[in-house]
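[step 3/7] inverse_fold.run input=structure_tokens len=244
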């Protein structure tokens, strides 16, 4: 058929019933099945093929157009999340999510349960639009002050307090937050390596004695400087002698 992937099939040249084609693309051409093919070298190529299959299905089965569009949007969303996670790993910035989740549950469970009770009682006034804007802002990393300007009542104040507390734990927790990670991996790791490397190459850094806590003498430069000064003294002595 001259095609390596399902989306490359020329449907006009196939003598196959339309319902069978729909079943093939919708039920057979799934991620677990396509993953067995050697046509896809990476997960990204597989995702792109699945999105292309959704486009084929929208043409074949317009009655279920919304379903296929939702599937394609979910694939694009999942791919964006994967890309963001990869970029996050490359940037060496992360937090210990599991530990922080337990810390947050322990510290904020009472407030959260109180907020849920108020929500069920109809006291909360934080509307759906506010929630969407908040999630969008947190995802983008740009949180305007206006997001904290919610109507004053117990429920909304509690909601804002919970959000601020979670963000504070993620950013400033001394043991598991972003601040700790920056200290261990970047300030003391990557940054320290960048600053320390040139000094080590030039033999400037010396070890510190564990018992006395004093830095040991720099044998390398001590010897080099000694040899240099000795050479200069000998040259100077020879020049003085020759002048006489």
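[step 3/7] decode complete -> sequence:
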């Amino acid at each position: 058929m001259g095609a390596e992937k399902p989306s490359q099939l020329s449907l006009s040249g196939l003598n196959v019933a339309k319902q069978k084609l729909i079943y093939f693309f919708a039920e057979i051409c799934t991620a677990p099945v396509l993953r067995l093919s050697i046509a896809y070298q990476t997960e990204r190529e597989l995702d792109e093929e699945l999105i292309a299959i959704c486009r084929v299905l929208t043409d074949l089965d317009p009655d279920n157009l919304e379903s296929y569009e939702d599937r394609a949007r979910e694939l694009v969303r999942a791919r964006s999340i994967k890309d963001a996670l990869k970029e996050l790993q490359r940037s060496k910035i992360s937090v210990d999510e599991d530990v922080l989740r337990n810390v947050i549950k322990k510290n904020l469970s009472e407030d959260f349960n109180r907020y849920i009770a108020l929500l069920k009682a109809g006291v909360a006034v934080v509307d759906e639009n506010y929630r969407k804007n908040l999630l969008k802002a947190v995802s983008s990393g740009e949180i305007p002050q206006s997001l904290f300007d919610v109507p004053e009542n117990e429920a909304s104040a509690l909601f804002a307090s919970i959000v601020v507390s979670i963000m504070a734990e993620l950013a400033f927790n001394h043991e598991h937050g972003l601040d700790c990670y920056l200290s261990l991996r970047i300030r003391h790791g990557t940054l320290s390596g960048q600053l320390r490397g040139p000094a080590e190459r030039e033999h400037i850094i010396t070890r510190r004695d564990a018992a006395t806590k004093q830095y040991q003498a720099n044998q390398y430069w001590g010897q080099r400087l000694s040899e240099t000064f000795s050479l200069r003294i000998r040259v100077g002595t020879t020049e003085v002698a020759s002048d006489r």
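[step 4/7] annotate
Residues 235-244 have pLDDT under 50 and may be disordered.
The first helix runs from residue 18 to 28.
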